[in-house]
Design goal:
Number of strands: 5
Shape: globular
Largest sheet: 5 strands, parallel
Distance between the termini: 21 Å
CATH superfamily: HAD superfamily/HAD-like
Radius of gyration: 14 Å
Number of domains: 1
CATH class: Alpha Beta
Helix content: 25-40%
Amino acid sequence: MKAIIFDRDGTIIENAHYPKYPWQIKLKRGIKEKMFKFYKNYEFFLISNQSGIKRGYYSFRDLTEIHKYLERLIYPIKFREVFYCTHHPNENCPCRKPRCYFLKKIIYNYKIEIENSIIVGDSNVDEKLAKCFNLKFVRIEDFLSY
């Protein structure tokens, strides 16, 4: 299975400082159209660090509401599975990017073709995540100009 694994903040949505409400998020210009172009041939996944929960900026329910809103914004596109690390950066959890836990789950559970899959993100953390399994990393600006 070919996959595109997306980051959320700064990649699919514009960077917002710990958004608590759905109305605080906005799709990155051109992202929906570009995702739609690849949607037929790739499975989409999302991996995102969301430490705002542990920092007390928003609740898990708030995160869930924002994700539901994001799903409405990108409809009919759907993610096969979504992974959020809600731990504080100081916690030594295995799931916070750039650690490989969620990516490993995706690759093994869905039998992802590493050579035909990419990670799309906006940060060095996303790039380091791609190196866990030697996936191609594509910066969001480059993805949007494909």
